[in-house]
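Sequence in, structure out. Go.
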Amino acid sequence: MTPEARRALREALAGRTRNLWNVPEARRAAVLVPLLVREGELRAILTLRSTGLRSHSGQWSFPGGSIDEGDADALAAALREAEEEIGLPRDRVEVIGLADRYRTITGFEVTPVLGIVPPGLEFTPHPGEVAAVFEAPFHHLLDPAHQHVRTAMFRGRERTYYEIDWREQRIWGATAAMIVNLSRRLALT
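Output:
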């Protein structure tokens, strides 16, 4: 990734994060949006959450989880979680910035952290948390043509959510919504 591209990402995120859902009872969480350049293409790394997890099990997501008391902030939590979940060393992540927080219908307020990782790293999924790891072209995920609005019943109410498909993978819910928010943010710069 060129220095100009890195600078453009940083500028798009700098000082403009919004928190539209600052609700005290929300459980604070953070995810790392790990990006890498492979074969000249910027790609996002996603994880398949193990089916035994209490929340968002079986969904494609970015590595992340709750912000613990020992975490200094969302950035520290995102880096810790990525290291725990896929073995991504914290010191190998070039942090680009924070994206807009996202409030899930399950009560989490999630701060996405964008970071660049070098190609060639081997990821080791934590068996209790991550069932698989895959990469998708970042431009594909950010393209509004691939971001579809769907509806489903949840807790007795019809809900709308985003869905993004890449090959056989279905990215939906909170992760897809964070990608949509990010694509809108980047389109404004």
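Check: The chain has one domain: 3-141. Helices lie at 3-13, 74-86, 138-142, 174-187.
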